[in-house]
From TrEMBL:
Cross-referenced InterPro entries: TM_pro_TauE-like, TSUP
Membrane topology: Multi-pass membrane protein
PANTHER family: MEMBRANE TRANSPORTER PROTEIN, TRANSMEMBRANE PROTEIN YFCA
GO cellular component, one term: plasma membrane
Keywords of this entry: Cell membrane, Membrane, Transmembrane, Transmembrane helix, Transport
The name this protein goes by in its record: Probable membrane transporter protein
Highest rank taxon of the organism: Bacteria
Family under the similarity heading: Belongs to the 4-toluene sulfonate uptake permease (TSUP) (TC 2.A.102) family.
Location(s), subcellular: Cell membrane
Transmembrane segments annotated in the record for this chain: 20-44, 82-102, 109-129, 135-168, 180-199, 205-226, 233-253
Lineage: Bacteria, Pseudomonadati, Pseudomonadota, Alphaproteobacteria, Rhodobacterales
Pfam families: TauE
Main location, first listed in the record: membrane
């Protein structure tokens, strides 16, 4: 390893809670690989134990950028790219607002917000909640805007969009592809906003780079495991892992 990289990598490995973060991201990567979503729902509650909210958001966005090259090409052909593009456009102005709210709130309050939204998403997925209204242009714009706000405030960009797509009654392949494209685009948007505001310093960038290794490994494993015929099994496994992460990340344990 070049001498210039050794101190940065050593500093990342020595970060408090590093191995918990690495194991959590490996599990998150597996779930993301075979479902197309869920990594933030797993990582963000656990990471909040060891990191301030802004660093949690920076790391999950940075490591998920590693998924773009691995997942997007396969998802591109199956996605409704026009609708995903509209969701991203609607989210662009609300991501900075979410970051501003996050920066103004106490870290413990942010953790409770994360727990509430992650837990609420989990309950909705388990109960099989379905959006009964028509999927109109204003609805799509509103979903994108809310997703951007939550992504900037908590790092949980996906839940609103995932519930939106699951409610639409689409097949698993399309839901997975749309979610992959949206989350990939939002990772780039969030990282760009973090860099512009100076929220992501080099130590966090290096920590994210090192943590991307277990995440990417898990994600490739999950993608290799994905078979549409096992959709129900994947769903149960993903919901179980998300539930454990939400419970473990509750501020009451500290």
């Amino acid at each position: 390893m070049p001498e210039t990289l050794a101190p940065a990598v050593a500093g990342a490995l020595a970060h408090p809670g590093f191995w918990w973060l690495a194991v959590t991201l490996a599990a998150a990567g597996i779930v993301r690989g075979f479902t197309g979503f869920g990594s933030a729902l797993i990582f963000v509650p656990i990471a909040g134990i060891f990191l301030p909210p802004v660093h949690v958001i920076a790391i999950i966005a940075l490591v998920e950028i590693a998924s773009i090259g691995a997942l997007v090409p396969r998802a591109w052909a199956h996605a409704d790219r026009g609708q995903v593009g509209l969701l991203v456009l609607a989210a662009l102005p609300t991501v900075p607002q979410g970051l501003w709210i996050m920066d103004a709130l106490d870290a413990t309050i942010v953790r409770w917000i994360v727990a509430a939204f992650a837990g609420g998403t989990l309950i909705a997925l388990i109960s099989g909640w379905h959006y009964a209204g028509r999927i109109t242009l204003p609805v799509v714009v509103a979903i994108g805007a809310v997703a951007g706000l939550l992504g900037g405030m908590t790092g949980l960009t996906g839940p609103v969009v995932v519930l939106f797509y699951l409610a639409g009654g689409r097949v698993a392949k399309t839901v997975r592809a749309n979610t992959i494209l949206f989350l990939g685009a939002m990772d780039l948007v969030i990282v760009g906003n973090l860099l512009l505001r100076g929220f992501a310093d080099m130590s966090i960038i290096w920590l994210a780079a090192v943590l991307s290794v277990p995440y990417f490994t898990g994600m490739i494993t999950g993608q290799a495991l994905f078979q549409p015929s096992y959709e129900a099994l994947y769903r149960r496994a993903a919901l179980t892992v998300i539930a454990l992460a939400v419970l473990a990340g509750l501020p009451i344990w500290q």
